[in-house]
Amino acid sequence: MMSCNTYSEIRMLRDHYMNNGKLNHVELNKFHDHIMHQVVSLSVARISKKLGASPSLFSFFVMGSAGRFEQAVWSDQDHGIVYEDNGEDAQEYFLTLGKEISEGLSQAGYAFCDGGVMASNPLWCRSRTTWKQQLDDWVSETSWESIRHLLIFIDGRPIYGEGSYIDELKRLVYKSVRNENMLHRLLDNTMHVKKGVGFLGQLLVETHGKYTGSLNIKEKAVLPYVNAARLLALKGDILENSTLLRLKHLPEKIMAVRDRSLYEQQFLRLMEYRLSMGNHKDYDSGHYLAVDSLTKEQKDVLKEIIKNAAHLYQLARRQIEKDD
What class has domain 7-180? Predict the structure, then answer.
């Protein structure tokens, strides 16, 4: 695949493949990785030319759906930087790099994160030492926001630089979660699951607003799988990032092989439904499916996927609550 010299060229490459390629879920996310890596490489070259070579080794990592290898056609930014300790000059350098990367990703078609989860934010651009302290603080605090930040970080995945830094930090988080018996607090943070299928077996669609008549597939299908698999991975000490791999590697004592296979198949089918049947006009529209455009068979499959998402989440809840 071609290498680009400007962010606008990267955007043209992205648009060309999105418009002309018949991508499945895995191919789509490999392509996102390629685009993001191109942006970061170009940003590093620009900042090196402007400020000199990087003062230390570092890792650029993605979180959210990118971290889980679960992006749709459009995606916003969720990323951070961890660098070797090297004083205040290093912090200034890497924040400048983080801002350049954020701007480059924006120009390449990835919207800025509304919550500021980007390497341009000092909260998400830190040395190894201050990252360890920040993660310890999030573990010890009881606020909803600190738990949310911890859950976001757990999905982190390196795509440029020293990947071992993220692995090291994630191992510390997993150890802290076990030592502090935090799974209940993490469960409480993600416990609200919006119902997707009604008592009469109907898909519960939006009843007002821009997406009236459409099913919010993110809230009612994707997130229950994602949140349940993350909690079970923490319980099973599984460092994988993607929902599929988290399910695949669950030990028998947590979930039987037959059940793991079922949930893997259901989630992968959900990802393919989202990709093939969604309206990917922009980031928000990618979260909705127009129910009237689906066949009866497709609706039935979707209902089964949503019901199994709820079952998986209840299983995760039971696994965690039984530790009391």
Answer: alpha beta
pLDDT computed for residue 1 by the predictor: 56
Q: What is the CA radius of gyration of the chain?
A: 20
Half-sphere exposure of 165 (CA within 13 A, CB side): 25
Per-residue confidence (pLDDT) for residue 276, from 0 to 100 = 87
Q: How confident is the model at residue 180 (pLDDT cuts 50, 70, 90)?
A: confident
Q: What is the pLDDT of residue 286?
A: 84
3-state secondary structure the chain: CCCCCCHHHHHHHHHHHHHHCCCCHHHHHHHHHHHHHHHHHHHHHHHHHHHCCCCCCEEEEECHHHHCCCCCCCCECCEEEEECCCHHHHHHHHHHHHHHHHHHHHHCCCECCCCCCCCCCHHHEEEHHHHHHHHHHHHHCCCHHHHHHHHHHHCCEEEEECCHHHHHHHHHHHHHHHHCCCHHHHHHHCCCCCCCECCCCCECCCCCCCCCCEEEHHHHHHHHHHHHHHHHHHHCCCCCCCHHHHHHCCCCCCCCHHHHHHHHHHHHHHHHHHHHHCCCCCCCHHHEEEHHHCCHHHHHHHHHHHHHHHHHHHHHHHHHHCCC
Which phi and psi angles does 197 have, rounded to 5°? -125, 130
Q: Which two tokens stand for residue 111?
A: 């919207």
- Mean pLDDT of all residues belonging to the chain: 92
Kindly list the domain boundaries of the chain, sorted by start residue.
7-180, 188-321
